[in-house]
Amino acid sequence: MTPSELPYLRHDTGPGPRTAILWLHGLGADGHDFEPLVPMLGIPAHTPVRFIFPHAPVRPVTINGGMRMRAWYDLTALAPAPRESGGHLREAATAIEALGRDLRAQCPRLILGGFSQGGAVALATALATALRPDGVFALSAYLPDLDAAGLAVRPEPGPCGVFQAHGLSDPIIPVDAGRAAVRSLESLGLTVEHHEYAMAHQVCEAEIADLRAWLLHCLTEG
Asked: Judging by DSSP bridges, how do beta strands 83-84 and 49-54 pair with one another?
């Protein structure tokens, strides 16, 4: 998987954006999944943003009976903890790092994030590559096993830190997995803005409002 093999959708909220937001979808979805949220985020005209929504490769997914779907990596188990293909995770982090570098040539500031599996890849890329985004958001996600994937942690906190959000009744990735990710990130010296909501494995209106406030802070930071 290379940047040229990684198709994506692009949405500029105005001319001359100086910030790119690279947003990764979850398992079985595609780049269109979070496109409708762009107008809901209400990005001000004076701080235009380039949203990039990449499509993950199509591959068999073990926990779904080997069914082929868009997935950043294969998952062989969800309980008692997610178990991902280390090779696929390493491949995804490398491809997102390269795509992020390409975006930085267009926009000097970069925010990286995603939902569920996409959030896990965003965290892995931020922690174990040289990309060093200015901020990271992880929605209904968890921190994958970087050691098992052969990824060395080398965090350098960006000015915005991490926005982490989770549903209290998430049946796919339990809220405890999100809380464990927060503890791990904070132990690495990262600043984490942590939110929990009365929802399942999804996004909700309150979460979108909180994410918007965090993003607007990032757009004016530095």
From this structure: unpaired
C-alpha distances (whole Å) from 156 to each of 20, 66, 111 are 19, 37, 14
Helix (H, G, I), strand (E, B) or coil at 126: helix
* pLDDT above 90: percentage of residues in the chain: 87
Write out the catalytic residue numbers: 116, 170, 201
- What the chain holds in terms of domains, given with CATH numbers, is 3-220 (3.40.50.1820)
| Under 8 Å between Cβ of 119 and 89 | no
Kindly state the tokens that stand for 7. Answer: 């198709």
Q: How many C-alpha atoms does 171 have within 13 Å on its Cβ side?
A: 0
Q: Among 180, 187, 195, which residue's Cα sits nearest to residue 145?
A: 180
Residue 107 to residue 103: CA distance in whole angstroms: 6
**Mean of the per-residue pLDDT values for the chain?**
93
**Taking a C-beta distance cutoff of 8 angstroms, is the pair 110, 140 a contact?**
no
What DSSP designation does 41 have? H
Distances (CA, A) of 36 to 21, 68, 109, 117, 199: 14, 25, 23, 19, 19
Containing H/E element for 24? Answer: strand 19-24
pTM of whole model > 0.90? yes
pLDDT of residue 3 exceeding 60: no
The DSSP code for 3 is G
Host H or E run for residue 49: strand 49-54
